[in-house]
Amino acid sequence: MSSRYAHIAFSPAAVERQRESGSFTIYGSKLDHPDAGPMEFDSRAQGFVTSVDSFFLSTVTYDGWPYIQHRGGPRGFLHVLGPNRIGFADLPGNQQFVTLGNLETNNRVSLFVVDYPTRTRLKIYGRAHVVDADADPALLQQLLEVPGGIMSAKAQRSIVIDVEAFDWNCARNITPRYDKERMDESLALARRPLQEQIDSLQADVARLAAENEALRARVSNNE
């Protein structure tokens, strides 16, 4: 497994804490391996990021303060553009432009991607680049496309992130939450055996009704 995430995330102070707590063998020991450079998404990571409908994006202000922003859209709004590149359309917001302003002075970002029903989370480090619509209209059009069609929001730019590293986190303390779509899917799965039983019983009723009608006809003809 790549040591890139460890080389980015684990400071000397963090490593010392790991030694004290006994977790160094699991985490900090990865620093014994050379930094292999940017990681590439495997199929699991690709499928995960393209399935979510939101994530949290962290940037840093010009004087070093962290800033976190929620980004959301239809499932599939976060696109995989290459082995270690992702992107999304910058949908209209409150026009504070804090994230965009931060990226002008420091393009380092961190993404926290969570799927609450499955209690799965993925942490991503990367470098973000803002691409105005006029500079690459085809890219923006691509990022506006989602499985259900094309987003109607009038985005003016694309944000492309070159992934440096990623790491799957444990499910601890993630409370499962379900949106209407997931609830409908779960209910449909739960109801499927019952619906199959109902369909079978209805077919039996129809068959018996037909047999009964045929029997009535024969009795009537014999009278």
From TrEMBL:
The keyword Coiled coil applies. Residues 44-139 form the Pyridoxamine 5'-phosphate oxidase N-terminal domain. It holds the Pfam family PNPOx_N. Residues 191-218 form a coiled coil. Keywords: Coiled coil. The keyword Magnesium does not apply. It comes from the Bacteria. SUPFAM superfamilies: FMN-binding split barrel (SSF50475). This is Pyridoxamine 5'-phosphate oxidase N-terminal domain-containing protein. It comes from Nocardia globerula.
